[in-house]
Amino acid sequence: MKITDARLIICSPDRNFVTLRIDTDEGIYGLGDATLNGRELAVASYLSDHLLPCLIGRDPFQTEDIWQYLYRGAYWRRGPVTMAAIGAVDVALWDIKGKALNTPVYNLLGGQSRQGVMVYSHANGRDLSETVESVQKSIEEGYFAIRAQSGVPGMSGTYGVPKGGKAYEPAERGLPAESLWSTEKYLRFAPNLFEKLRVEIGPEIHLLHDVHHRLTPIEAARLGKALEPYHLFWMEDPVPAELQEGFELIRKHTTTPIAVGEVFNSVWDAHDLIRHQLIDYLRMTIVHGGGITAMKKAADFAAMYHVRTGCHGATDLSPVTLAAALHFGLAIHNFGVQEHMRHTALTDEVFPHQYTFDAGYMHPGTAPGLGVEIDETLAARYPYQRAYLPVARRLDGSITDW
Ligand code: CS2
Ligand code: MG
């Protein structure tokens, strides 16, 4: 089998997506997701201008050799743009391999290791009571793992809480929106949120929370300690993760489990975090982490240190990535949880898929390959529109981490 063509489908059904399609001389094609929220066209150029010409004529079954060729052959390694591009190629090749062998991709990764993939939903509210209601709605929908994000008293808005009751989508068209952040207000409020949630919903539901890179290690240690009575499933991205040794300080003070890595694009970004057992869940995801080939290696390394996966799965990762993540999560042994931020109905229409949700679990389906398609005619009706993630400033006006 030979690769005969590789091209991008860039569309914006409610939000921007970059999808790679690779065609072969046997009529089988594969899809990969190359979406990097707020920097979509950088990845599109890296693929179209640099990687795709190198694929023509290659054997799509050679996933390992092609991954190494694209990674080592670039000379300039790693980074979110590079690894999202390599990830898109890799996932499309696994899709082709599954279709050619007439088997779902999970069968190529070790087979079905569990009945289903436990997923967590997004619950949020502008204030405590709205957030409690939103968590209760997720429970009614069948989730038993739920991320809770709430507006903070005294702050006009915060991460994870939509404006005006719409579904939460952080990237906004036009220039970057600016938001204000107060660590003091947040640290005073967050423990109250989870105390109230435990009173309202009891101890069984897995509660997760995303700090979104906003604290210093000692502040994160304080928060983790304060949240211990509420037994969170995880506290996510407590600090910006460049300083891996900073997590030693957090670990010294709290047993609240830590999840990190959605902004990582290589296992090297988490090497010390994993081998020193400074985290409990690795959030790196298939699209940004270099594809299935890379994520399988990262998961196997993490398994040696009791670290489980908790792959990122926001709506800025397309249904192609969600499908790939479900195949991956169904097969690997040290699976932890998969994020399930539901795409809009229009996005789902553009990306018909086999995966299903039932009673807190998802399954990728048994179709050969990934079990996801793209309706190119419909996609063409929603052209790309530049959009940016917000920028955050402290109350004194200085830039902080959004
Ligand atoms: C968040 C994301 O899902 C999460 O855990 O951190 O919503 C993140 O903000 C977006 O994916 C950024 O594009
Ligand atoms: Mg996050």
From TrEMBL:
Molecular-function GO terms, alphabetical: magnesium ion binding; mannonate dehydratase activity
Q: Write out the GO biological process terms.
A: amino acid catabolic process; carbohydrate catabolic process
Membrane-crossing ranges are none
Task: Output the SMART domains linked to this UniProt entry.
Answer: MR_MLE (SM00922)
| Residues covered by the Mandelate racemase/muconate lactonizing enzyme C-terminal domain | 128-257
* NCBIfam families named in the record: ManoateDhtManD, PRK15072.1
Tell me what this protein is called.
Answer: D-galactonate dehydratase family protein
Question: What does the record give as the organism's lineage?
Answer: Bacteria, Pseudomonadati, Acidobacteriota, Terriglobia, Terriglobales
